Amino acid sequence: EAKSETSVTIHLSSFLPSPVCSPSSHAAGRKSSLEVVHKRGPCFRNGDEKSSSVSHSEILQQDQARVDSIHSKFAKNSGIAGDVKQPDAAELPANDGSVVGSANYIVQVGLGTPKKELSLVFDTGSDLTWTQCEPCVKACYKQKEPIFDPRLSTSYSNISCSSTLCSSLSSATGNSPGCESSTCIYGIKYGDSSISAGFFAKETISLTSSDVFPGFLFGCGENNQGLFSGAAGLLGLGRDPISIVSQTASKFNKLFSYCLPSSSSSTGHLTFGNGGGISKSVQFTPLSTISQGTSFYGLDITGISVGGQTLPIQSSVFTTAGAIIDSGTVITRLPPDAYSALRTAFRQQMSKYPTAPALSILDTCYDFSNYTTISVPEISFSFKGGVLVNIDETGLLYGTSLSQVCLAFAGNSEASD
Amino acid sequence: VAIFGNVQQQTLEVVYDANGGRVGFAPNGCS
Known about the structure:
The complex is a heterodimer of chains A (about 425) and B (about 30).
Chain A: E1 2-3, E2 7-11, E3 33-38, H1 56-77, E4 105-111, E5 116-123, E6 130-132, E7 157-158, H2 164-167, H3 169-173, E8 178-180, E9 183-189, E10 195-208, E11 211-225, E12 233-236, H4 244-247, H5 249-252, E13 255-259, E14 268-272, E15 283-286, E16 297-299, E17 301-306, E18 309-310, H6 315-319, E19 323-325, E20 332-334, H7 336-349, E21 355-356, E22 365-366, E23 373-377, E24 379-383, E25 387-390, E26 397-401, E27 404-407, E28 409-411
Parallel strand pairs in A: 5-12, 6-11, 20-28
Antiparallel strand pairs in A: 1-2, 2-23, 3-4, 3-14, 4-5, 4-10, 6-12, 7-10, 8-9, 9-10, 10-11, 13-14, 16-19, 17-18, 17-24, 21-22, 22-27, 24-25, 26-27
Chain B: E1 2-4, H1 6-9, E2 13-17, E3 22-26
């Protein structure tokens, strides 16, 4: 891809992912670093055959369920009656603060003694780490590796109901813990109605061979149902005391970084601590705490530019509801006025291309069937503190095929979302 | 809230420094 100051030329042959995995050596070269793969790409051979048939439209619907859940948490906690439909109640109360849905990226960690490798979805938008556990008393879905069996580990122990650790589940899961034979029971339900429930326990977790943490608190799931696509569970990277970020703070000082790969056929990394050195080109913006959602990582967006032109968006548009960064949400959601300005500018600069029907939540789509290269306006975000982030060309468009490629942004339905 | 999603985070180095109260971005984080 050639890049000018205001536009990006994309060779469409590179738009569709390769069926062959091309791993990066980046993770292997860094301390305390795990390889990140996309759960629907060739770098993750999962145990769920159905996952490969999930359509982009379904992925976007799952993504919207996740976003609805995040919004309903903020509406609920701020005392504002949200107009978001709550997920149907099944066996657990809906936890609208923890949402997995479309979370896409997977890392492999070791659990137990002896260590068993497990592929977990990593998610900065939730807190509790859990995995499926034998004997799967009620339900387990198919996963890539053998399901973890605590009976085969010498370092596993359950948490008792009377422990203060048990009551810490409430903030991490949104649900009060249960108690069975004096053993603490967790339950969590996600925005797409996926669930996990089971024993709240301690176990040794091995991030790498030199990063081993005994007594790590996690959920050992005996009832697991949902859209996890072969992953063994979830790695919660939120800000709650129960997240892996907080539980490993003594070593990593609540510092971690990641790079999500440019396609589902390449790999990235998740690195705890400074990994031997944070890039000198990193620009930092202050982390804001949103009172209604203290587990989330808050950001302050200050502006957006398209094709080198700053969009005419009043600052209040961004400050009304604030913003978060989330590794589990696929498509960036913007306040309605900000999205409207972005869409207008993008459409103007893309007017020479034939349009295509909308794709689920994406309403600005094009038919590039007759093109080998296209020129797309560069999109940049400004954050508080003068941080300017140019969105990579892989983050501008999202599509099913060359006949339906869409602007990869969407608007919230309300300015207060 | 607005949400900065994972499609737009691709290839960036995203640094979470919770104790330092900051989030950082750098280009070409995977290469």
